[in-house]
UniProtKB/TrEMBL annotation:
GO cellular component: membrane
Keyword Membrane listed: yes
Signal sequence annotation: none
Organism of derivation: Halopseudomonas phragmitis
Name of this protein: MFS transporter
Ranges for domain Major facilitator superfamily (MFS) profile: 15-412
GO BP terms: nitrate assimilation
Main location: membrane
Compartment(s) of residence: Membrane
Keywords: Membrane, Nitrate assimilation, Transmembrane, Transmembrane helix
Length: 459
């Protein structure tokens, strides 16, 4: 969707810079339990399952809130929604420090999780400032705010040692509150604000109408892995490293940062590649590399005894700490490309429903960040194998790759049969040629004989 009036580059960059910084701080707060949760585990005598639930609880709030925050941002714009969200999250983070038992910790974690809803607010706000052909790069830069998890993994251990978990939470609350005030004062209304006021707020059913498209839910599965698994590993890795490799909390935090930083910063590259080569190709790269990495990481330390010609042959297989660090870096790199590619799709297919559709996709992805750490803890308690977490991730990414490839091949057959170009494949051609100004399910030209939505053009 074209911008209503040309926007100066300086204002575009200002909006992008403010939203990216704000999202970075929100993400740092959202993942703070990956570090302070380890201190809470000792202080309150928590099991791995209880720790997994505590780490995952903020992700639940952040995920569910994305749907409503996305709709509110479509209605009212990102400036006020983003600013007030940061102030509310800061207050909840500060109140967490008064928790005296495990139920109170869970309640506080629900409030802290509101910071995770900042993602869809920022996506909607940022996308409104940029032309369609530049949205992939802009959203990739914004999404690099995931580096906030790396900030937490690197800085929070030192704060924890110096101030305790309560002091660490108070520092985080103060910084986020300051950013909320700065955003309200410095951010501008997005270029679509005047159009929203002129047209009036759309109804809830109208905003949610694209959710009937199965493609939205397929994108959601992709994001369940590339983002949900990213959040889950950002929370789980310090505990995993301390359990498997017996490192201290500072070392575990630094190594975990070697995963979270590339899994965040290279999202910028993912946006650029999605604009240049197509988001679908980037998704193929992401899933194929992730299948390989998770397969290797899922293999536990094993002693082999083989019946040889001259007797037993024994050897030992184990992934060293160095090899683990390299593999987790590679996994984070490709997941970062995938995160950008998923959200490159949304403004292309649903230009007037970025908040609603992005809210659902972000919610499902965030639910991955909630379910997976909890499942990791349960697998540890039930199966007793640390690598079971990567076994689960291997199954998820393999399923996502299979579904994506099946859908693309099916769309190719529909395109050949109807001599029309399916909007399921714009990234394999020229994305700008397929931008739909609006989604009109009642218009026959958007449907083929099998009931699949398509867009026609003269070739």
């Amino acid at each position: 969707m074209a911008l209503p009036t040309p926007v100066p580059r300086s204002r575009q960059y200002q909006a992008l810079g403010l939203s990216t910084l704000a999202f970075t701080l929100c993400f740092a707060v959202w993942t703070v339990f990956s570090i302070i949760g380890l201190s809470m585990k000792t202080e309150f005598g928590l099991s791995d399952t209880q720790l997994g639930l505590l780490m995952a609880t903020p992700v639940l709030t952040g995920s569910i809130s994305r749907l409503f925050l996305g709709i509110w941002t479509d209605r009212y714009g990102g400036r006020w929604v983003f600013g007030l969200l940061m102030l509310t999250s800061a207050a909840c983070t500060y109140l967490l420090t008064y928790a005296q038992n495990y139920p109170m910790l869970l309640l506080g974690a629900l409030g802290v999780g509101l910071a995770g809803g900042a993602f869809i607010v920022g996506v909607t706000y940022t996308a409104a400032w940029f032309e369609p052909e530049r949205q992939g790069t802009a959203l990739g830069i914004f999404g690099a705010g995931n580096v906030g998890a790396g900030v937490t993994n690197f800085a929070a251990p030192f704060l924890l040692v110096a101030l305790g978990w309560q002091g660490t939470a108070q520092v985080y609350a103060a910084i986020l509150a300051i950013m909320g005030v700065v955003f309200l004062l410095a951010a501008r209304e997005d270029p679509l604000a005047a159009e929203r006021r002129q047209q009036g707020a759309p109804g809830m059913l109208e905003q949610l109408s694209p959710l009937a498209d199965p493609r939205v839910w397929r994108f959601s599965l992709y994001y369940f892995f590339v983002f949900g698994a990213f959040v889950a590993l950002a929370l789980w890795l310090p505990h995993y490293l301390m359990g498997v490799y017996k490192v201290d909390i500072k070392t575990a935090g630094i190594i975990a940062a070697l995963y979270t930083v590339p899994a965040s910063l290279f999202r910028i590259l993912g946006g650029v590649l999605s604009d240049r080569y197509g988001a679908r190709k980037v998704m193929y790269w992401t899933f194929l590399a992730s299948v390989a990495c998770t397969f290797v990481l899922s293999y536990p330390a094993t002693d082999f005894i083989i019946a040889g010609v001259q007797g037993e042959v024994r050897f030992h297989f184990e992934i060293s700490l160095y090899a683990f660090t390299v593999l987790i870096f590679i996994l984070g790199f490709f997941m970062s490309l995938g995160k950008a590619a998923v959200f490159k799709h949304i403004p292309v297919y649903y230009p007037k429903h970025v908040g609603a559709v992005g809210g659902v996709v972000g919610m499902v992805g965030g639910l991955g960040g909630f379910c997976l750490p909890l499942t990791f803890g349960m697998l540890n308690d039930v199966i007793g194998i640390w690598q079971s977490s990567f076994m689960l991730l291997f199954l998820i990414v393999a399923a996502a790759l299979g579904w994506m490839h099946y859908s693309i091949r099916r769309a190719e057959r529909v395109e050949w049969q109807t001599q029309q170009v399916s909007t399921d494949l714009p990234e394999l051609a020229t994305p700008k040629a397929f931008v739909l100004d609006d989604w009109r399910p009642e218009d026959p030209e958007f449907w083929d004989t099998t009931g699949r939505r398509i867009a026609t053009r003269n070739l």
